[in-house]
Structures are given as C-alpha cells and as structure tokens.
C-alpha cells in the first residue's frame, strides 16, 4: 500500500507495519507500513530541494495555493469529517466542526502573517528601515491524534505560507486523516516536495526529529514526548522548536446565581471530545458547604445522562469514544488508582460496551487524597477538589507543573480580576468553557505545557525569522563625519 508522499510521489513504506482502528468496532480503517529511516531522510531531502523555489514565490502566489487548499477541503469535507469520526471516535457533528476549523485556518493565518510577520518599513533621516521575515527552511510537523486534521494544520498552513517546506509526521493512530489532508494539498496544486508525508509510530518520529536536515520542529502532543524533544534540541540554537503540550487545567467555581449554566459549562469543559482536548478541565474546584454540595449533585445527575456512542450513531451522542482500547484501559486504571488513594467516586466512569473504547463520564472527589497526582488524564475523568476561601482556590488552581488553561465561573468581576492576575496559564477564561479556544487568538501555555512558542494566531512568529535592514539606494558620505576620521 502506498502510504508516504515524498517528492511528489506516493510510495510504500519500508518500516514496521501498523494499522488504525475504529475505536468502537475495532474494524481496520487504514493499514500500511511505516517510513524507514531512509525514507524519512529522502522526505527531508525532497523538502530541502523544493524549499528555495517555494520560498522565492511571491506571498500572493503562496496565498493562492493555500486558498485553493481551503476550497478542496470544503469539497471533501464530508469524507474528511467521516474519516475523523472513524479514526478517532469523535461524533460526526464534532468532526464537521474540526474540518471547518481547518478551512478557517487559511484566512486567519494570512491575516496573522500580514499583521505579525509581513513587511514593514519606515523612513530614517538618510535611509529606510525595513523589516522583513524569512522562512526557516525545512520544518518537521508532528501531530497528535485528538485533532488529527486541525492541529497539524495549525502548523502546516502558517509554515507553508511563510515559505517553509514541510515534512509531516502524523499520529500513528490517525494516518488516514493525514493521508486525506495531504491529498487535498495535492489537489490544490502545491508543488511536489513542498509538503511530504511520512507515516509511522515512534521510530519514524525519532528518525525525523534526529534528522540533520531539518531547521525546525513544530510539535503538538503529550508533555512526555515534548520533553524528550526539548532535551534532544538542547544545545541546538540553530533549530527552532515549538512545543504545544498538555495541561492539568483547573476550573474554579464560585457561588454563582445560575447553577444550571455552571453545570452546562463544566460539562462542556470536561467532557467534550470525551475529555480528549488539551484544554479540558481536569480539576474542578468547588467551594465547601451546601451550595457546592448542590452544584455537585446537579453536575453528577446531568453527567449521568450524557449520551455516549459511536461517531455515526443517530440521534448523535455528545461524547464519542476515547482513541483506543488501550487508552480506555489506562483511564480506568487511573480512576481505580485514585480511588485506592482515597478519592470518592461521585460518578464512576465505566466502559459500557466490552471491546469498545467508549467510556461514560467520571467524576471523582480527590479532596482527601493526600498527594494528588499532577498528571494529565486524557479522557472523561474529572477530579473535584473542595476549597475553603477564594485565595485557597487560586492557590490550588496554580498547584500544577502545567499552565495551559484555567477558568473561573463567578458573578464577581472583582474575583475575576484577582484570578486573572494570580493564575498562571496561557488561557484564562471567565464564565466560559475552557475548551474551544479561538484560532484568532494565540494558543499556548506556560510551565510544562509549552516552550513559550504560542500557536494559533501567533504561529506566524515561529514560522519565520525577522530580518531588519537599513537601506539606501545610493552610497554617500554623511554631512558630518565622526571625529578622528578624515577623507
Ligand atoms: N497544547 C496543545 O496545543 C495540545 C496538546 N495536546 C496534547 O497531546 C496529547 C495527545 O496526543 P498524543 O498523540 O498522545 O501525543 P504523543 O506525544 O503521544 O504523540 C505526538 C506525536 O509525537 C510522536 N512521537 C511519540 N514519541 C516520539 C518520540 N520519542 N520522538 C519523536 N516523536 C514521537 C507521535 O508518533 C505523534 O506523531 C495530550 O497530552 C494533549 O494534551 C493535544 C492537542 C493540543
Ligand atoms: O489551534 C487553534 O487554531 C486554536 C486552538 C484550538 O483549536 N484549541 C482547541 C483544541 C484543544 C486541543 O488541542 O486539544 C480547544 O481549545 O478546544
């Protein structure tokens, strides 16, 4: 099976065989062989060869190809949404929103490029100061499985726009979405070699990250892998590394007037995408006392009724499956481990159908757990911590190595001001769900969530480097010479 797209040709893999499965039915969605180290190398060389001509094209020419890509995405949107659903288990309504985000990324990236990294100039007394931006060269893009279309696209579109050539290594759990996306680029007329696709698991990623031929690596994925890459790139200031990693995101609930609005917002924050968004609320901070007890009772009652099902089930479920049986098993074990450590299951997360990666929402009260685990559980498992006093809530919210997203549900503007000032995260929301960040804003975290290279609207910043010039069409002597020099 031809699975890799290198130098404008599809070719079969020479590495390990692997397949992607529908997480609910376990049916094979895609299979093939991963790229060998030699194939990764040829993909990097193809990108290197294609880079100069692509970078020399005018910005308008590159934009035209990108806009055509948006057109081809729209034309294939049903097929793409279905494939996202099949490979990830995400309900069709949600997969369709992912394709829309991919389409919208083009116009947003163009706007961002012009605003943040375009050409700017200003007159000086005897010259012109010009600021331009140049592409880095060949960049590797690593994607996660949870948004197999939208998140790699969030690196690829701005990278190509800036004039880079790309080698794309998608998640091994979602190869078919990557293949379809690359086909859309080909149909849009992207020249051969400018975007290359190498499929495969860890070994393919290791080979690509270690390639001497890349000038940068843009990664979205787990903190564990991101940290490995960070160590690997240490001492390499010549290569740009952008890391978008996970979080252990707190959502603080203050005593609010509209209890149902709070419950709905918590559900959208914790359980959308079956809890598989990096921005999902993982820790829910609830005040001690009767009001907090009432909120939790209502949250548990409503969460117990959430419809969970296969991606194409009708009527549509709110939550699809998690990515795999292995992931489901890992999450169930994590729940059991927390219960063993003293957590109280307010709503037990269960696997309702054997051999299907469907999980129901889980809510654990971990207040009594002595040493809470600061880890991201990437699924529908929400940990509740009761707090006494708003200062204590903020301290608890910040009690994590991560710093991606933090939210406050409160009727008090004053409390939000305090939360905004004191919380440590790249996304801080007020009375809004934590998930669903806008592509028109920067997207990134501090602490263990990233390396200060925010993506989305600020992706333009890591896709090009600034070149500052002082320019004068004629060379002439200044009116006054510096002391000590005579001509
Ligand atoms: N901050 C952000 O923007 C986002 C972060 N994420 C995070 O991504 C994670 C889920 O995605 P996963 O696919 O599980 O991440 P992952 O880290 O397992 O994999 C990401 C990519 O890295 C590759 N890879 C794995 N080990 C490697 C190694 N040693 N060297 C080179 N490449 C390697 C994988 O094959 C895949 O292409 C969650 O932790 C989530 O929070 C997901 C979406 C957005
Ligand atoms: O990257 C963008 O264009 C905006 C950020 C975004 O789409 N965030 C989503 C996905 C979160 C995740 O990566 O898991 C969100 O906040 O829901």
UniProtKB/TrEMBL annotation:
It catalyses: N-succinyl-L-glutamate 5-semialdehyde + NAD(+) + H2O = N-succinyl-L-glutamate + NADH + 2 H(+). InterPro entries: Ald_DH/histidinol_DH, Ald_DH_C, Ald_DH_CS_CYS, Ald_DH_CS_GLU, Ald_DH_N, Aldehyde_DH_dom, SuccinylGlu_semiald_DH_AstD. It comes from the Bacteria. It holds the Pfam family Aldedh. The active site is at 244, 278. Residues 10-461 form the Aldehyde dehydrogenase domain. Keywords: Arginine metabolism, NAD, Oxidoreductase. GO terms for molecular function: succinylglutamate-semialdehyde dehydrogenase activity. GO terms for biological process: L-arginine catabolic process to L-glutamate; L-arginine catabolic process to succinate. Pathway: Amino-acid degradation; L-arginine degradation via AST pathway; L-glutamate and succinate from L-arginine: step 4/5. NAD(+) binds at residues 221-226. Its EC number is 1.2.1.71. Gene3D superfamilies: Aldehyde Dehydrogenase, Chain A, domain 1 (3.40.605.10), Aldehyde Dehydrogenase, Chain A, domain 2 (3.40.309.10). Catalyzes the NAD-dependent reduction of succinylglutamate semialdehyde into succinylglutamate. Belongs to the aldehyde dehydrogenase family. AstD subfamily. This is N-succinylglutamate 5-semialdehyde dehydrogenase. It comes from Aquipseudomonas ullengensis. The lineage of its organism: Bacteria, Pseudomonadati, Pseudomonadota, Gammaproteobacteria, Pseudomonadales. The gene is astD.
